[in-house]
Specification:
- The protein contains 12 helices and 17 strands.
- With 455 residues, the protein is α+β, with helices and mostly antiparallel strands.
- The protein has a 3-stranded mixed sheet with strand order 10-16-11. The chain has a two-stranded antiparallel sheet with strand order 1-2. A two-stranded antiparallel sheet has the order 3-4.
- It starts with a helix and ends in a 5-residue tail after the last helix.
- Residues 4-88 and 380-397 have low confidence and may be disordered.
Length: 455
């Protein structure tokens, strides 16, 4: 630049022609082109050069434009070019990290881009729309950003609509974290009776005679008949044998329909606390109930050839039978069975009449322990050292659980832990606290003496 200034001064004084070498000519040409290129919004417009001197030997070089402040870029590991070698119009593409020559370019968030380098971070296609989205400094097509971040309804598979306040409003299951439109809570969209998940509207449920619906995953492990449940019954008896004293009396186990379970609850005079969602019952009275001995046929996703048979219960001890609702997944059936077996154990071992909170609480503790032993094989429990051997002996026969079945077991455990009722929820939490602190046998001895949990 000093040589160029001196050359201009020499020509003005008329001291003769200053010969400019090839490098100076290239630099002058680059300066001329940089003034002719469309400048960025923050740069000044080019200044027209003064009229040429009438002398034929004068060197016509446009005056240098006033200095402007160059935009600051985050070049990363790239070293900015020296201003001596590159004119003011030089820009670095933030996409390919190369020079942006004369022509069109894009400016976004303090950086410059070749039009072909300004691409969507999701689909990697060039963004040519007037509007686009930025997330974590990455550009997105508005449609791609919506696909990635706008929640879709698990039932209708549409984008969850925006409410009157301009916000995305949805409902979500506390455990499965499914998101769905608020309207599906009232429009009859079905849910699975066992896992409570909402399936897509085209999902095919298994519909039981009492109106319950089972999703395909829960149906795959459902227990439909008494004979089918006997193996599970034996496994839970082994579980109890490792924790408590063996019960000598053989208590019948029957799988029944909802109607038969409701009728049995009405006839149970000294029954324990029941709810509308009761799915198991420990009977002490002589009754005749309708049981489902064999698995019915399934045709067209409906139960066919259901053949309930009457079963007369004769009282030979304090417990006449354990009734379980049919059609539930194996882990849910087992947890209900473990709960009802604790009711039977307390009665057969001569425990006094306990309050519903204490009796249901300790029964829920046993159901929770059995579920834990199923989904966490060989899990140690501070409640009883023998539980490890009981769990390991059972797990060798169970085989590996599928990912969904493990998740389903965790869901049933979470239902027990988060129950908000005073009898089942508070009872479980107080019983489990005593169990972890004093152990199972000490907790049961304290219940026998005081009828309450240890603090």
């Amino acid at each position: 630049m000093e040589e160029l200034d001196r050359a201009v001064e020499v020509d003005k004084k008329g001291e003769g022609k200053k010969v400019v070498d090839n490098e100076d000519e290239q630099l002058a040409t680059a300066l001329q082109e940089s003034w002719n290129v469309e400048s960025s919004p923050e740069s000044s417009p080019p200044i027209s050069p003064p009229p040429q001197s009438p002398s034929p030997q004068s060197q016509s070089i446009p005056p240098q434009p006033p200095p402007t402040q160059s935009p600051q870029f985050d070049y990363g590991s790239f070293v900015p070019p020296s201003p001596f070698h590159y004119p003011l119009g030089y820009r670095i593409c933030a996409g390919c990290n190369t020079e942006i020559g004369p022509g069109r370019y894009l400016s976004c968030r303090g950086a410059f881009w070749h039009p072909k380098c300004f691409r969507c971070h999701a689909c990697n296609q060039a963004i040519s729309d007037y509007e686009f989205s930025i997330s974590k400094n990455y550009p997105f097509h508005k449609s791609c950003y919506k696909d990635l971040h706008h929640p879709k309804c698990v039932a209708c598979r549409n984008f969850i609509p925006i409410n009157a306040a301009g916000l995305v409003e949805y409902r979500a299951h506390p455990f499965w974290h499914q998101k769905y439109c608020p309207s599906h809570e009232h429009d009859g969209t079905p849910r699975c009776y066992s896992c409570e998940r909402m399936e897509p509207i085209d999902a095919i449920y298994l519909v039981l005679d009492d109106g319950r619906k089972l999703c395909p995953e829960c149906q795959s492990s459902s227990i439909m008949g008494t004979n089918e449940c006997q193996l599970l019954y034996l496994e839970i008896q082994e579980f109890y044998k490792g924790l408590l004293k063996k019960v000598e009396q053989q208590v019948p186990l029957l799988l029944v329909e909802r109607q038969a379970l409701n009728e049995a609850m009405k006839g149970e005079k000294i029954g324990h606390h029941h709810t509308l969602w009761t799915r198991g019952l420990c009977l002490s009275e002589e009754q005749t109930v309708s049981t489902i001995p064999r698995r019915p046929k399934i045709g067209g996703y409906r139960i066919t050839n259901m053949s309930p048979e009457p079963y007369t219960l004769v009282r030979k001890c304090e417990v006449t039978a354990i009734l379980i609702l049919y059609g539930l997944p194996r882990l849910l059936t087992g947890s209900i069975l473990a709960h009802e077996m604790m009711h039977a154990w307390l009665r057969l071992k001569g425990y006094p009449n306990l309050s519903p909170k204490v009796e249901e609480g300790i029964c829920q503790v046993m159901a929770h322990m059995w579920l834990e032993s199923e989904i966490i094989p060989c899990s140690g429990n501070n409640a009883a050292s023998a539980s490890t051997s009981a769990s390991s002996s059972g797990s060798s026969k169970k085989g590996k659980r599928s990912a969904f079945e493990k998740k389903l077991g965790q869901f049933f455990m979470q239902l027990i832990q988060s129950d908000s009722s005073e009898v089942y929820g508070d009872g479980f939490r107080e019983g489990n606290k005593a169990l972890l602190k004093y152990g199972l046998r000490s907790t049961l001895d304290h219940i026998r003496l005081t009828g309450s949990f240890q603090c």
